[in-house]
Design brief:
12% helix, 216 residues, Porin, mainly beta, elongated, 8-stranded antiparallel β-barrel
Length: 216
């Protein structure tokens, strides 16, 4: 539990510090290379970590182990230093239940996400650029509907995220992708449960995701 609390505090703080540094160098004029692209389709593959979904009093504590997420994103430039679009993702995390020092598997928690995304770009350095990524949408959870707190919760949950991406432009280079990159983001999902015999740690569950991005 101590590691979970540390993650919830350290992850958003680290991203907030990176975001502040990024905003400090946002461009004041058009970056020609960025405005040349109207639409961009990006695929991503990442690992997702964290998630304490229920702290049991007379029920098991429910957590998720590191899992995987796949996504596709479509964005369009809306200004010289910003783009907006939508992202659709699917993911899975192993589910664990713990009670009285006994731990056992609860199967696999699967989810689908649909978000609106806004990205703010920093000034390019040669073939590299950074962006601050903001997202808001909904998540649908499945695969664990017979386990508290998912059993008593809505299948649709609000989702928000804050992240930073590093983009490497491969235009002019011998590469099948238009752009390659890395990303890290901290997301929060709202889960409301009505279990009488257990108390949720919080209505908002935080998770950290990091991975690679490829754009065409």
């Amino acid at each position: 539990m101590k590691n979970g609390r540390t993650l919830k505090i350290a992850a958003p703080l680290a991203i907030a510090l990176m975001a502040a540094a990024l905003l400090a160098v946002l461009p004041t004029r058009v970056v020609a290379q960025a405005t040349a692209r109207q639409w961009q389709v990006t695929g991503e593959l990442g690992g997702v970590m964290g998630g304490t979904w229920l702290n049991g009093l007379t029920a098991p504590t429910v957590t998720t182990a590191p899992g995987v997420v796949l996504g596709i994103e479509v964005q369009r430039n809306v200004s010289s230093h910003a783009s907006a679009g939508v992202s659709v993702r699917v993911g899975a995390q192993p589910l664990s239940l713990t009670e009285l020092n006994t731990k056992w598997s609860g199967g696999t928690l699967t989810e689908g996400n649909a978000l609106g995304i806004v990205s703010l770009f920093a000034k390019s350095e040669k073939h590299l650029k950074m962006s601050l990524d903001l997202g808001l949408g909904i998540a649908t959870l499945a695969g664990a509907r017979n386990i508290l707190p998912f059993r008593d919760a809505s299948s649709l949950s609000p989702l928000g995220e804050l992240g930073v991406s590093l983009h490497r432009d491969t235009a002019g280079l011998k590469s099948a992708q238009r752009e390659q990159g890395l990303f890290v983001r901290y997301s929060i999902i709202r889960l409301d449960a009505s279990a009488v015999e257990a108390t949720a740690t919080t209505g908002w569950i935080g998770r950290l995701t990091a991975g690679v991005r490829l754009a065409k």
